[in-house]
Amino acid sequence: MNKAHKLHKHTDDCHPDHSHDQALKRALQVLKTSSLKGTQARIAMLEFLTEKHGPFSPEDLHRMLKEKNMDLVTIYRTLAAFEKIGLVRRCDFGDGISRYEFESEKSHHHHVICKSCKRIDNIDKCAAQKVQRVVEEMGYSDISHNMEFFGLCSDCKSKG
Amino acid sequence: MNKAHKLHKHTDDCHPDHSHDQALKRALQVLKTSSLKGTQARIAMLEFLTEKHGPFSPEDLHRMLKEKNMDLVTIYRTLAAFEKIGLVRRCDFGDGISRYEFESEKSHHHHVICKSCKRIDNIDKCAAQKVQRVVEEMGYSDISHNMEFFGLCSDCKSKG
DNA sequence: TTTCGTGCAAAACCTTTGCAAAGTG
DNA sequence: CACTTTGCAAAGGTTTTGCACGAAA
After folding, report:
1. More confident residue, A113 or A43
2. Which of A121, A142, A150 sits opposite B152 (nearest CB)?
């Protein structure tokens, strides 16, 4: 069974300001800083991720970048590398599939996934910051978080 | 490789009021209401989960309830059934392992996982409620959420 | 040139499924 | 007794690993 790989596109624009190229430049900079080589595969993935934003599963990326003839394994390894240096964030929608999204201060947000039609909406407000302060007070540093919401969207509700 | 299965115990008491048995009673009630049979396996798991609370992976439970001679598959199926009727909540710590925790209104909370020593602390404050209101305004109903924090605990920080 | 990254094949791992036997109400 | 649940075995799907070849600095 090929679970819920095809999820709806976002219903709102993540980047109405067309700041893709800036994000890409910064990303390539981070790559250098981390002494990772600027290979074709990595550049192709960063171009895609900064423009389309996500979240995408490794298989999604493999399919959507198939003209680049990259191995799925390379995509897994590249995403792991990107995650380690903070270029992407891993999302978990609870279906056993990892999804990744380009991460930057500006772009940080969370999602609601409709339990029925699997559509994804962005939530711009990140209330986790208040909790983050609590976590800091507990003595933690270098804090990150995951937060996803699940619900029934209005369309699915009205359809019964 | 057997990833981070052995996580530290919580460093604070979840239930200083010893309300295990009450929670267990209510859980068994929910079982009946959902027309699920009160089998040995289910009762053993509920006893364990209401007392020790979690979060536990299926394998954790299998190991810790090994005197009951339950098959791992039974544990998977039971957890799935419990999750469906809201008796447990699934947590994702981003390491590819599902962990489950007994869920009740009183017990609802989130975690911080130390990236280094894997210790888990509870966060009692659930700031997700404000975001939940935003999600409601977007038209969603029947909303649930996952939220986990990751950081470096003070012990690990001082050890370098 | 030296180090790092990629592709391919295979393995590891967690989770799910099918079916006969046993248990529950 | 009718129906659900369990155990066992096997399969499924995602992710990881090993190694030789190729690419980047």
Report:
1. A43
2. A142
Pick from A29, A23, A12, A31: nearest CA to A109: A12
What is the C-alpha separation between B143 and B133, in angstroms, rounded? 10
Which residues 14-73 in chain A have a CB closer than 7 A to strand C?
36-37, 39-42, 69-71, 73
* Mean pLDDT, rounded, for A27-41: 96
Other Cβ atoms within 10 Å of B72 Cβ, number = 12
Q: How far apart are CA B153 and CA B116, in angstroms?
A: 8
pLDDT of B106 above 70: yes
The crossing angle, in degrees rounded to 10, of helices B72-84 and B40-52 is 70
**pLDDT per residue over B29-75, tens digit each?**
999 999 999 999 999 999 999 999 879 999 999 999 999 999 999 99
Which chain B residues have any C-beta within 8 angstroms of a chain A C-beta?
90, 92, 94, 110, 112, 114-115, 121, 123, 125-128, 130-132, 134-135, 138-154, 157
Q: Give the pLDDT confidence score for residue A125 in this predicted structure.
A: 72
What's the confidence (pLDDT) of residue B91? 92
CA B37 – C1' D2 distance (Å)?
14
Angle at B129 between CA B126 and CA B130, to 5 degrees: 120
Q: Which residue is nearest to nucleotide C8 (CA to C1')?
A: A71
| Token duo for residue A71 | 């191995």
Chain B partners of A114 at a C-beta cutoff of 8 Å? 140
Give the per-residue pLDDT at B124: 80
| Closest protein CA to C1' of nucleotide C14, residue | B97
pTM of the model: 0.85
- CB pair distance less than 8 Å for B148 and A146: yes
| Type and span of the H or E element at B61 | helix B58-64
